[in-house]
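Quick one, tokens below:
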């Protein structure tokens, strides 16, 4: 009989530090948006557009970091701590290399990339500044993501939370200084915001690295970064590449949607950027539960607690749905006033309020999708997520917004309606897949086969001995 999981792998113990970290990231984004709005709505549009681009490009190293995170949790669950340690080291090295390549591309070609993605010409000078500086530090983003994921997968979700607190404080202070010329800093506007982002990420990466070196049972030394295990890396890729392809389909659909919105105008682009800030607040606690659920289920799955893993999702889902709906409703009630803090343009505020009404419908579908999608990822069923992302997200979430929003002339509301349909269709499909219990039953059969083999071997040995 398997022992119950350690207390640090309970859903609440995993989720609350992740929530605080996400909440601080939200505050960081809100502070960014609020401070940048003091420069101009055009600057806000550029930051929102650029962040979508950066998010799309992170999928290139998510292949390794996410696959590694799932395997680390599974290996720790099955008490193979040395394997977990080796996987983490490999992941950091590979993602750092990918991040370096992305940094060089974004630093050298910021204007060309923004132009290809249909950013309005008047915004290109601002985009050149922001993309070249923040995009040029993608190596830090890559390393941070992998270090945080590896540390969380060991059950330590508090460490990344503390670092997020410090990073937010540094970032907000530097933002204020660079935008308004305070604390003896030059008044550099959007350039200062970009530099503030890079500096805070650099400091966070350094601290995360020290925490990472002590994250496993046996301390990691710098000499250990020479380690590379082909077999373990193939396992990471086996889980990670479908995960990354599926995620990239969604992220690139969001990037394409931003390019559609850019066709509508700078006001619509600014409205969507403000909306992103409020929407992220709605989903923070739900997302933290979904992320914690993935770590917990991967650990249970690795420990052989298959039935427990299966049932855990349903208990967590209803709590998360209620929380997400309550958050969305509160934001809808006060959304107009909140938007008024960011901008005084009546047109932008009106568009934002309309989107907040639709957000009430979006969030439950998004939670359904995240809960079961993360659970499937945790047990290694990442190819199914990839298939539905490539089919549903690229059509309903990527192509249909152009037809409905641009071709049919329904504008921003039509585009958002397609985003809602995408979340619900994928949510229902991953729910049905989880109900089939394919990976759970396969694992149970494998465990039963191993027991029979051990019993048979033991029986034969007894006969031979007699």
């Amino acid at each position: 009989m398997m022992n119950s999981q350690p207390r640090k792998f309970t859903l609440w113990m995993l989720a609350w530090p992740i929530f605080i970290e996400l909440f601080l990231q939200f505050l960081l984004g809100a502070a960014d948006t609020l401070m940048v709005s003091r420069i101009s709505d055009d600057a806000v549009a550029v930051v929102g557009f650029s962040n979508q681009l950066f998010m799309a490009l992170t999928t290139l190293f998510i292949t390794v970091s996410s696959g590694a995170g799932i395997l680390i949790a599974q290996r720790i669950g099955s008490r193979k701590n040395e394997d977990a340690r080796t996987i983490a080291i490999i992941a950091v090295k590979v993602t750092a290399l990918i991040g370096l390549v992305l940094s060089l591309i974004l630093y050298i070609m910021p204007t060309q990339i923004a132009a290809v993605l249909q950013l309005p010409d008047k915004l290109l000078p601002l985009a050149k500044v922001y993309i070249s500086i923040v995009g040029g530090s993608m190596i830090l983003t890559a390393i941070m993501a992998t270090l945080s994921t590896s540390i969380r997968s060991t059950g330590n979700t508090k460490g990344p939370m503390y670092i997020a607190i410090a990073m937010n404080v540094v970032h907000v202070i530097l933002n204020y200084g660079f935008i308004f010329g305070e604390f003896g800093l030059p008044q550099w506007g959007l350039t200062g915001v970009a530099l503030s982002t890079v500096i805070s990420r650099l400091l966070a990466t350094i601290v995360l690295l020290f925490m990472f070196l002590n994250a496993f049972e046996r301390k990691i030394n710098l000499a250990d970064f020479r380690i590379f295990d082909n077999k373990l890396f193939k396992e990471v890729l086996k889980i990670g590449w479908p995960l990354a392809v599926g995620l990239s389909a969604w992220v690139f659909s969001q990037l394409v949607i931003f390019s559609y919105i850019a066709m509508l105008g700078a006001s619509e682009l600014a409205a969507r950027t403000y909306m992103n800030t409020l929407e992220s607040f709605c989903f923070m606690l739900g997302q933290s539960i979904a992320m914690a659920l993935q770590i917990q289920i991967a650990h249970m799955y690795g420990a052989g607690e298959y039935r427990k893993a299966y049932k855990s999702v349903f208990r967590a889902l209803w709590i998360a749905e209620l929380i997400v709906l309550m958050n969305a409703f509160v934001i809808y009630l006060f959304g107009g006033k909140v938007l008024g803090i960011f901008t005084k343009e009546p047109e932008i505020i009106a568009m934002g309020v309309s989107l907040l009404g639709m957000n009430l419908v979006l969030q439950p579908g998004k939670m359904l999708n995240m809960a079961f999608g993360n659970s499937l990822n945790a047990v290694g069923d990442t190819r199914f997520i990839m298939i539905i992302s490539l089919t549903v997200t690229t059509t309903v979430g990527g192509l249909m917004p152009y037809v409905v929003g641009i071709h049919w002339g329904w504008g921003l509301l039509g585009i958002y309606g397609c985003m809602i349909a995408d979340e619900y269709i994928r949510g229902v499909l991953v729910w049905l897949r989880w109900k089939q219990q394919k990976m759970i039953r396969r694992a149970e059969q494998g465990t039963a086969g191993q027991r029979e083999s051990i019993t048979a071997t033991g029986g034969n040995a007894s006969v031979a001995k007699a």
